[in-house]
Amino acid sequence: MNPHLVLLVSSEPFNYFNWFGLPLIIFFSRIGDVTIGTIRHVFISKGFRRIVPLLGFVEVLIWIVVVAQVMKNLNNWACYIGWAGGFAAGTYFGLLIEERLALGLQIVRIITSKECDQLIVELKLNNHGITIVDGHGAQGPVKIILSVVDRSHVNSMITIINRTQPSAFYSIEDIRETGLGVFSDLKGSSVLQRIFSSRK
Fold first, then answer.
1. Of 18, 31, 30, nearest in space to 64 by CA
2. What is the CB neighbour count within 10 angstroms for residue 67?
3. pLDDT score recorded for residue 35
4. Three-class DSSP labels, 6-68
5. Smallest Cα–Cα separation from 149: which of 100, 89, 189?
6. 167: left (phi > 0), else alpha (psi -120 to 50), else beta?
7. pLDDT-based confidence at 37, cuts 50/70/90?
8. Cβ–Cβ < 8 Å for 126, 149
9. 72-120: per-residue pLDDT in tens?
10. Is the pLDDT assigned to residue 6 strictly greater than 60?
11. Residue of 25, 46, 113, 185 with fewest CB within 10 Å of its CB?
């Protein structure tokens, strides 16, 4: 046996929980708190105030628990991977959930140079409040149709536009708050939408 060769054998068994279990817990916990945080910021921007404090409480509570675990394992790089991965995934899932909830109001602007009586009739039949303005575009007179729509009904309005005025230009923007007006019926909306429809 070569006296210069020494075989080092660790006396401690490999800790599977620290290197696999704990990083996974951190990963999914970060998904939770970042998802909540992303939704909370979106709710703030849209003026929904009632649910925001509760979301903030849960978000910070999860964050504190996760940070405490990371600080106890500063020499474990797998925890850092779980932290960063959870943050990225949480941001994605937060935006995905917010998109599915379809909360808030949007203004749809439709500009067309063609006859749009059928479009106007169908919008009114679907209880979309509209304002019609005469304008002048680069190629002559145009009609500008403005409508404030619950976000969950924007797709149905786009379907009407594409069916009746496929060549029309339209744009969609978020708006924070409105006063009186005519809006689409919300009976088909989800429970969450009806709960959050009251913003104050």
1. 30
2. 13
3. 93
4. CCCCCCCCCCHHHHHHHHHHHHHHHHHHHHHHHHHHHHHHHCCCCCHHHHHHHHHHHHHHHHH
5. 189
6. alpha
7. very high
8. no
9. 877 888 989 999 999 999 999 998 888 887 777 888 999 988 888 888 8
10. no
11. 185
Q: Is residue 66 exposed (0-12), middle (13-18) or buried (19+ Cβ within 10 Å)?
A: buried
Confidence check: pLDDT of 197 > 60:
no
**Structure tokens belonging to residue 167:** 């060549």
The pair phi, psi for residue 175, each rounded to 5°, is -130, 150
Q: Is 153 exposed, middle or buried (0-12, 13-18, 19+ CB in 10 A)?
A: buried
**Two tokens at 138?**
């680069």
DSSP 151: G
* Three-state DSSP class for residue 5: coil
